[in-house]
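Quarterly update from the structural biology core.
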Amino acid sequence: MKIAICGSMQFTDKMLETQKALENMGHTAFVSDFSGHYTGKTASQREDLKLHHKFEKDAIREYWEVIKTCDAILVLNYDKHGINNYIGGNTLMELGFAHVLHKKVFLLNPVPEIPYYKSEIIATKPVIINGDLSKISD
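Predicted structure, tokenized:
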């Protein structure tokens, strides 16, 4: 299965680990072409890079093109900003892209309790894998 890995760029190191794990399981997994820029950076530096890549490199459209070629997305929703299973605005858009494109949606962890858009996440009919990558299937 071809899988686009989505989530906050603060989780880049975990995205790269997950990419390797999925590939070892026989999947083809993608992360943003910009991921390499985020390794070894502080949270503040990563935030600056995110804005640069979105404004100057059109990162949102870059990953839209990746999602279009995949069978599914996997959202790495770890805790962030005191929110369990955090999903930010950009990842919410990627969930929407996948849904509109009729792609399978997998969440690593349960849907977060985030006011205003929890129902939108649920509407994409995600498969919650509870940290178990072996639960990813066609």
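The first strand starts at residue 2 and ends at 6.
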